[in-house]
Write a structure and sequence with these properties.
129 residues; single chain; 5 helices; mainly alpha; globular
C-alpha cells in the first residue's frame, strides 16, 4: 500500500470536513440549534466521507481485507491526530471540548465518523468483488 497516495483522499476529506463544519456553523446552527446542526452535519459528512472513500477504493481496485484494514487504521490515526493537533493548537479549543465530541451519551456523534472511517473501506472493497 502506498501511504503517500492514501494521503490524497484523506486531505480531501479534511478540506471537505472544514467546509462541512463552516456550513454547519453559519447556515444550520442559527436555524436549528447546536444539537440538530451537529447531527445533520455529522450525517452529511459521513455520507461525503463514504463517497470519497468508495471512489478511492474503486479507483485503486483495493480488495484485500488486510490492505483495507491498514488503510482504515491509517486514516483513523491521521484523523484523530489532526483533530486534536489542529483543534487545540490552531483553533485554540480546550482539550475538554475536543474530548466532549466523543461523548455519545451527550448526543455527540463524532465517533460515528471514525467508525465510518473503519468500515467504509471494507464495504467499498467488498463492493468490488
Amino acid at each position: 500500500m502506498n501511504f503517500i497516495n492514501a494521503l490524497i483522499p484523506w486531505v480531501a476529506l479534511v478540506i471537505l470536513a472544514i467546509i462541512n463544519g463552516t456550513i454547519r456553523q453559519k447556515v444550520l446552527l442559527p436555524k436549528v440549534g447546536e444539537q440538530k446542526a451537529h447531527v445533520i452535519g455529522t450525517i452529511t459528512f459521513i455520507l461525503v466521507q463514504f463517497f470519497v472513500i468508495y471512489f478511492y477504493i474503486q479507483l485503486n481496485s483495493i480488495t484485500e481485507t488486510s490492505t483495507l484494514l491498514i488503510l482504515s487504521m491509517y486514516w483513523i490515526v491521521l484523523t484523530v491526530l489532526f483533530e486534536f493537533v489542529f483543534g487545540h493548537y490552531v483553533m485554540k479549543h480546550p482539550w475538554e471540548k475536543l474530548l466532549a465530541d466523543y461523548n455519545v451519551l451527550k448526543g455527540r456523534l463524532w465517533v460515528l465518523v471514525l467508525i465510518n472511517n473503519l468500515v467504509a473501506p471494507l464495504i467499498s472493497g467488498r463492493l468490488l468483488t
